[in-house]
TrEMBL record:
Gene3D superfamilies in the record: Aldehyde Dehydrogenase, Chain A, domain 1, Aldehyde Dehydrogenase, Chain A, domain 2
Protein source organism: Lojkania enalia
InterPro entries (alphabetical): Ald_DH/histidinol_DH, Ald_DH_C, Ald_DH_CS_GLU, Ald_DH_N, Aldehyde_DH_dom, Aldehyde_DH_NAD(P)
Keywords: Carotenoid biosynthesis, NAD, Oxidoreductase
Superkingdom, taxonomy of origin: Eukaryota
Protein's name in the database: Aldehyde dehydrogenase
Homology family: Belongs to the aldehyde dehydrogenase family.
The Aldehyde dehydrogenase domain, residue ranges: 23-442
One Gene Ontology term of the molecular function aspect: aldehyde dehydrogenase (NAD+) activity
GO terms under biological process: aldehyde metabolic process; carotenoid biosynthetic process
Location of the active site: 222, 256
Length: 507
């Protein structure tokens, strides 16, 4: 196996020339042809394939990820995205006819053209350093953009491998990686971009949105959230325990869509805790610390942040709780808390902490979930069909998984994104193409239709206005009280269509 490449900060004075080169390539129209985009994606596929061993080693060093987890959530995810995109790109990029066009407007050939935004900046995150960097990059390439990628410095080994893959696979005049931390990111944000795509924390997302607003740059923000899980007394405690434990032990809980806290009916708490203990022993027979399948906290700063949250909690640890600072290990820890002011709930933990708050019933759970003023990235409800539907209809979130933990976020062709404080915009599947694409409305006015257009030219007369009304007015199918009208409304519409045809004929 080759040695891991070193992580090196990009010189600050090299950032502007790189950005200018990437922008010049877009303005040269090099990335416009579909053949170019597909070729770049195919080369990226093989770059990932040929460097899988290095990616596994890098993710192990950065996050303690197992080979299986790295394949599942990093390399195979991106490689499957590429295959999906190359198979469907021609269809995604094709002009679309404008929907619901009035009869008279059809003569102008209204259509929607798919244009790339331009030169884009992508800022990745450390928890899934390959997927959350290359996922948006795949969409940018497919859309015909040029791009600069800034991976997370908190996963330095994975970022260095990313740079190797991109440099060996993609056209360097169109795609580049800038390595670094706050100074390098600040220098990048000082440039004018056509789109910024950021994945990370709410605090940094707010800074990026403010900076982008200075130049009216559109942004897509994939942020975190205080995601609630809700377990009613009708839920299967074994199922809920296994699935929520999985959601909080994948990547040692460093997952933006995992539940931040669980609101659980008091009646089911004992059986849920029993099943949680059973599931933990089943997943990690020798204990999480000795398991090759359980990851580590990314760095000391994040470890100490999580430890502080536990130390300041007024709750009772009912399962787990062991920590090892030297190994950056935190055991999956279930803590029963008494209220929403607890330190484990006030902030997003982003780690293997599972606070539970007993409630009286589903109505109380929904009320508490909605009183958290941050709109979550996900909501996870366990109960009967009617209860899960009630949670959907009375809460808000970027996405939702019923009877599971964040399964909706594991489907690569399902659009993924937040709402409100959990982000804006979506990607994955076709949405990855759409998020970097401007839908450009286009019409073509034929010369022969000039006679019909004379209504738009001054001087304006009553005759012209009458003609325009006949061409454009739509008949309502409702009365003054907002009630839907009967069959005679359809007849009025038919009469109106006949008058339009007559007006066009006279033109």
């Amino acid at each position: 196996m080759s040695a891991l490449p070193p992580f090196e900060h990009t010189p600050i004075d090299g950032i502007l020339p790189t950005v200018n080169q990437i922008r010049a390539s877009f303005l040269s129209h090099k990335t416009r042809p579909l053949e170019f985009r597909i070729t770049q994606l195919r080369k990226l596929y093989w770059g990932l394939n040929d460097n899988q061993d290095l990616i596994v080693e890098a993710c192990k060093k950065d996050l303690g990820k197992s080979q299986f987890e790295t394949y599942l959530t990093e390399t195979s995810w991106c490689m499957n995205d590429i295959v999906f995109m190359t198979k469907n790109l021609a269809r995604f990029a094709k002009d679309e006819p404008a929907p619901d066009i009035a009869f008279t407007n059809k003569f102008f050939g209204p259509r929607i053209r798919k244009d790339p935004y331009g030169t884009v900046l992508i800022i990745g995150a450390y928890n899934f350093p390959i997927q959350l960097s290359l996922g948006p990059m795949i969409g940018a390439i497919a859309a015909g953009c040029t791009a600069v990628l800034k991976p997370s410095e908190n996963a330095p080994n994975a970022s260095a491998v990313l740079q190797k893959v991109v440099a060996e696979s993609l056209d360097p005049s169109c795609y580049a990686i800038i390595q670094g931390a706050i100074p390098e990111t600040t220098a990048l944000l000082d440039q004018k971009w056509d789109k910024i795509f950021y994945t990370g924390s709410v605090n940094v997302g707010t800074i990026i949105a403010k900076k982008a607003a200075e130049t009216l740059t559109p942004v897509t923000l994939e942020l975190g959230g205080k995601n609630p899980a809700i377990i009613t007394k009708h839920a299967d405690p074994k199922l809920a325990a296994r699935r929520l434990l999985w959601a909080k032990t994948l990547n040692a809980g460093q997952v933006c869509v995992s539940q931040n806290f669980t609101l659980i009916d008091r009646e089911i708490v004992p059986s849920f805790l029993k099943e949680m203990k059973n599931a933990l022993e089943e997943f990690y027979p020798q204990g999480p610390k000795k398991s090759p399948d359980y990851g580590r906290i990314v760095n000391l700063r994040q470890f100490q942040r999580l430890k502080k949250m536990v130390d300041e909690s007024n709750g009772k640890i009912v399962l787990g709780g062991s920590m090892d600072e030297r190994d950056l290990f935190i055991e999956p820890t279930v803590i029963q808390v008494e209220n929403m002011d607890d330190s484990l709930i006030k902030e997003e933990s982003f780690g293997p902490l599972l606070p539970i708050l007993p409630v009286t019933d589903l109505d109380e759970a929904i009320k508490i979930a909605n009183e958290v003023h941050d709109t979550p990235l996900g909501v996870y409800s366990f109960g009967n069909k009617q209860e899960m539907e009630k949670v959907l209809s009375q809460t808000r979130s970027g996405g939702a998984s019923l009877n599971d933990g964040f399964f909706h976020a594991s489907i690569p062709t399902l659009a993924f994104g937040g709402v409100g404080s959990s982000g804006q915009g979506a990607y994955r599947g076709k949405a990855s193409f759409d998020v970097f694409t401007h839908c450009r409305s286009v019409t073509t006015t034929p010369a022969w239709i000039e006679g019909m257009l004379d209504v738009r030219y001054p001087p304006y007369t009553a005759k012209k206005q009458k003609k325009f009304v006949g061409m454009s007015a739509l008949k309502p199918n409702f009365d003054r009280e907002g009630r839907t009208l009967g069959w005679w409304t359809w007849m009025q519409g038919l009469i109106g269509l006949k008058s339009v045809v007559a007006v066009v004929g006279k033109s």
